[in-house]
Taurine-pyruvate aminotransferase
Amino acid sequence: MKHTLTSTPSAAELVKLHRDHLWLHLTNHKTFETQEPPIIAEGKGYLLKDVKGKEFVDGLSGGVWVVNVGHGRESIANAVSEQMKKLPYYAGSMATPPYIMLAAKLTSLLPEMPKVYLSNSGSEANEKSFKMVRQYFSAKFPGKKKYKIIYRNRDYHGTTLAALASSGQQERKTDFGPLPEGFAEIPHALCYRCPFGKSYPGCSIDCARALEQVIQQEGEDTVAAVIVEPITAGGGIIPPVPEYYPVLQEICRRYEVLLIMDEVVTGFGRTGMLFGHQHYDVKPDIITLAKGLASGYMPISATVTREEIFNGFLAGPDDPNGFFRDISTFGGCAGSSVAALENIRIIEEERLADNSAAMGVYLMERLKELEELPIVGNVRGQGLLVGVELVEDKKSKMPLQENRLAQVVAFVRDEGVIIGRMMRSVPGYNNVLYMAPPLIIDTQGIDRIVDALRKALIRQL
Ligand code: PMP
């Protein structure tokens, strides 16, 4: 079909072009045969406007917990524009000043992680961490084959095939096999649905101890790393109990297994600390960062690591282990690095991690009020990463039917608030609503989110 493209298309033209040409992520396009696809046109702070001028509170920071500093930050746009005029891009084995400054800045925030490797997406940052770990151990123990990666069964680490193989959410893996080998699973750490049927604190943290059993099953010499989201996001909002990571780390150290923390969502203030792992007594070996790193103003991700791991790549110039055998064309792009630097400056100057902590407490208090409703089973989260689990009844904890969650999200949207729900089709785990507003949100914004949600839930009773 042929279209005449105008430079300022009307809302109706955009809807038509959308229906004719787009193939959106995780979206059932059949629904657009009867419903108009939503198109977001502009944003300021935590508010958004669609192409028809309807206003929304952005309860999801750009749809997928990304825009930590909020929309419409001119200083980021200006910094990127200046850099692009000076030098848009140079990569490979030669760095640019923004890459250098960003690496130094990240290390100032994470002093135990002095080496910074840049790429473009969360999936890529995690893939890099797996490749680093594998090459590191292959150089350290030649011939030993210490390469396996262990993950939790509700965590998500990305869309590319190895990142998917390291993800626990079975619903995302179906039909994409065979996936790469060398990945093994341990249970999640959600107390509300304890995989061992126990209750905290009388449980000996069996969910973390399960790691040792899997390491032994897989062969202790073969396991290279464990990857976890410090606080699981898309798998159901799961903040583990305080004792969880010390137990996990002790097992890792005993078997010389590296601990990779995927802070793609939890980084940069999302959970009320600058980084999610800082809520716990734990020292990761590698951290991956993406979404809040530049708040989505430019695509960028980072894999940051302890010195010792980097030093494993310093063999002589003719040795194949004298460098990390990996590249990413757009990793370290000058414009993206500048966006990240300005974004981090804003997060620090405006103390957005503190605001996330304070507003997170308020959001949680207000959502806890909803627990009086018979379909609200569990409210959980940390900072501005919060989930509401809906059930048919509180005793059986039977998940509320999917179509009813969809109705809640749609009603809330009609009320002018955007929230999310978990990806479909896993009985027992697809019944969580998410809220993760920009870190600049205030009590008024939170009241709008919770009031709309209460109305929507009451309609389901
Ligand atoms: N890790 C986590 C924890 C994520 O939530 C995501 C994306 N939602 C990823 C990795 C993958 O990031 P990307 O989509 O940028 O590849």
User: Anything to note?
Assistant: Residues 122-140 form the longest helix (19 residues).
